[in-house]
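Protocol step 4 of 6: structure prediction from sequence.
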Amino acid sequence: MARYIFITGGVVSSLGKGLASAALGALLQARGYTVRLRKLDPYLNVDPGTMSPYQHGECFVTDDGAETDLDLGHYERFTGRSANKQDNVTTGKIYQDIIARERRGDYLGGTVQVIPHVTNAIKEFILDGNAGYDFVLVEIGGTVGDIEAMPFLEAIRQLGNDLPHHHCVYIHLTLLPFIPAAGELKTKPTQHSVKELRSIGIQPDILLCRADRAIPADERRKLSLFCNVRETAVIEALDVGSIYDVPRAYHQAGLDHEVLAAFGIEPAPRPDMARWNAVTDAVHNPEGEVTIAIVGKYTGLKDAYKSLIEALAHGGIANRVKVNLDWIE
């Protein structure tokens, strides 16, 4: 039976939940496990196909034609597994299906409510089609405290009780801002974010803390104490030079080890990091460089062209050249 890893975000958006999910999936693959990654998006659009790139970045199209969130592109690039229409769902899609059922009379005249009908639909989506996978990583879009994310958080809270023991782990990605006037990283935003998460019944097993500098031991102990996690489960997520440095950086910080320990998998298989070492070596030690011009309508937001940017980056890695992009409006 598959084990489930739920990744939530706190403090601010755009911290990199998608990259963290993709990198963790890659690390579990490096240890010999099979993985599937899925994204739950809280917005009311049925899919991002009608949204301006300025609103949500690139609309990523899967092999089976689904218009999905751009994070599915990260999942594909980091794990090599092609995403499909069953790997992304939105609040709009969930409600569209529920209302269609209600109009058909599937609920036999009962009152349709967020709990249990919406949360059950979310749980059905999460659990469907996972036979043959060792781990299913589920990223919840948005930030803890967002009103639109509440049904998704309630659904994964319920799954923590529905699934067998040691089959569910919660990872919370937060920000530790550095305040120059005080000269220190501040833990209070993370404490408040975890308090918000715990108020709805979810106790994170692992804190993944974004920061622009190393987290001092005192701050790690404070986070452990006030957020009720083991000190070893307070993981640094420091800024790196390339997104393809992230798997190796997270491995060195102990993320994959802590995840497997939280599942009770000890001793865990040793990871084979040769592939990622080769990728990072090619990124940081190019043998030449090339400049490519990109003419586009949405050049003011680079996320609108995420797959194109990463495709060119992959071409550079494969040919050991640095790719410089010249953006033309």
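Step 5 (inspection) to follow. The chain has a mean pLDDT of 94.
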